[in-house]
Amino acid sequence: MGEKIIRTTKRAEGGITEEEKKKMDAISKKWIDIALRTSPTDYKDVEDSITRLYAAADLSKPNIVLVPSPRVMAWAYGISSAVWYLSKNIQNEATYRAIAEATDGATYEVTDEATRGATYGATRRAIAEATREATYRATYRATAGVTDEATREATLGATREATRGATLGAIAEATYRATLGAIAGAIDRATNGATAGATLEATAGATRGAIAEATREATNEATRRATAGVTAGATDGATAGVTDGATNEATNDINKIFDDVARKFVGEKNISFARECSKRWWNNYQGGNMWAGFCSYAEAMRDVLGLTDLDCWEKYKAWEDSSKIGGFRVMHEKFCIVSDFPKTLSVDDRNRAHSTTGPSHEWRDGWKLYYLHGVKFEEQEWRNIVEKKISIKDIMKIPDIDKRTAALMVRGVEELFDELKPKKIDSCAVMRDGNPNPLEYELYEVEELTDQTEKMLRYKCASFDKTGNWYIKWVDPKYTSALEAIADSHHLTKEQYKLTTIKQA
Amino acid sequence: MNIILHGDVDILPVDSIPEGLKKINFNGSYVVRHGESGNKHIITAERTAVDIYLDEKTGMHYFKVNSAVEISHEQHKTLVITPGIYKEDAETEYNPFEKMLRKVQD
Fold first, then answer.
1. What is the DSSP string of A234-269?
2. Which residues, in sequence order, are bridge partners of residue A368?
């Protein structure tokens, strides 16, 4: 290490000691557990920490809403941000009245539904109904107060229109036109990330900066590797990464449930607007417990290296607490919608999202995701594989090589060899700079798959695949050399293939 | 220059960039290819580090790398592309049922 160890309440230099490393391991373990939490959260804890998070950025307490899943979060966010935007920007009395009436209607229905809560609670409903209700209730809560504002604005609107109707009326027209290109600017403004950015900067951002100033690179980097690196490495793939992708898919594949709820709040003409707002959920989101890496790093800096006198910690506490009490959240000036933790979150021995006995992820509104070794499948695809409803031959026909590989890993090479009975005819190993292990390639003959002898290549990915999987693909039956087969599939000669550079970032 | 094999995306050295390609407005991050399962090969760099051109007929790209850039993907480790001129190509595999080559999808 060389550098002298310096520890004061405002300064840490000299790398980290073995004892500190052990304490950091415990912190990483704690945050890994938080990232993988599956027990439900408590609304009071959510309300408390989110209120403090907004206050840290000098923002007023918003309507704070707890929802069962990131899908409901994104959908309710889209509709709610559309309601708030339209209520503020449409300078047309009739439109104001329509929004106010629509929101009032939603209010009455939600109140009515609430009185029947016991019945709802006792009755096991279809997932669609649960999602519809959750989105509806969340939007209602997130838009509380908008009716008053809209009505007040409608009264003032007549006077305003006389003086500035020409300019502002254009916004309303653009919204009404409901063509995506014309309303793109409105969508951006309705979903802009100022709130998420301000809270992030006031808490975690300020902490990152204060820590950087208080440490030297060796200490900072060693701590980061021991905490954020370990925590994120163990969880990101199955938490933030999976949730991010699935939520995006959910907003890009909006269905009738969303439209039904949106119609009640923003009217038929603005459903498209609400849909587009929903797709921008990521403009304004923070990862909650699924961004556990930074929290483990900051905690180690404060509690292990002892940087307790930095100015950042008081505000950072709101961020830290908010990371413990919920999953993804969207932050809007008027509302904050927080997703509860999933009730199921399964990973394989390398922490990739994975389950062969049920969904790898399931949230309490019934939203489910099916993963095998980090690869997402539709439920029926997943069932076909784990319940052995499709043969190895059919698995080998799956076009996506990642899905094919994950499916084969579940079914096992033994089954593949039992069914196809491949005969190895060549193998080779290639060493490259930067890779301590040889890359291996095996070429097999397979009979009885088609009307001729086919050739199958088994290999590990040349780009140091993070997954470390063995891949299997078919190659032209003309090949007799494994190396020639793999090189040719990348349009290279055998000699070029051996020279491929694998310099890692 | 180096040869980069990044999963199903090959980045191969070439002598020059053909005429008539569409220049991409690179703002620091660019998705070279989307996979069927939602994963993406992304080039990340300073705005001036790379000029990217799209061959609209084939959907493949050419790259003039001025200073080192990184290519990342959810399933593959992040690799460095050193300065030089490159073209994008695709790993292929054989389909024994249709008796023809196709691009690998991931």
1. HHTTTTHHHHHHHHHHHHHT--HHHHHHHHHHH-GG
2. A362
Q: At what angle do helices A70-89 and A127-142 cross, to 10 degrees?
A: 40
Nearest-CA neighbor of A490 among B24, B10, B32, B3?
B10
| Burial environment of residue A69 by CB neighbours within 10 A (0 to 12, 13 to 18, 19 or more) | buried
Give the ipTM of the model, two decimals please. 0.90
Q: What digits encode the pLDDT tens for the residues A149-180?
A: 544 443 333 323 332 332 233 333 333 333 33
A464/B70 touch (CB, cutoff 8 Å), yes or no: no
Q: Is A491–B105 a contact, with Cβ atoms under 8 angstroms apart?
A: no
* Cβ atoms within 10 Å, residue A129: 15
Evaluated on CA atoms B53, B55, B59, B61, the torsion sign reads negative
Burial call A366-383: b when 16+ CB within 10 Å, e when fewer: bbbbbbbbbbbbeeebbe
Q: Which of B5, B93, B106 sits opposite A402 (nearest CB)?
A: B106
Long-range (24+ apart) CB contacts under 8 A made by A114-117 are none
- Residues of chain B with Cβ-Cβ distance to A245 below 8 Å are 38
pTM of the model: 0.67
Position of tokens 């009505």?
Answer: A151
Exposure of A263 in the CB half-sphere (CA atoms within 13 A): 8
* pLDDT band at residue A43 using 50, 70 and 90 as cut-offs: very high
8 A C-beta contact, residue B102 and residue B91: no
CB-based contact (8 Å) between B95 and chain A? yes
Question: Would the CA dihedral through A388, A391, A392, A396 be positive or negative?
Answer: negative
**B positions 15-74 inside 8 Å of A (CB):** 35-39, 70, 72, 74
Residues of A with Cβ-Cβ distance to B93 under 8 angstroms: 401, 473-475, 489
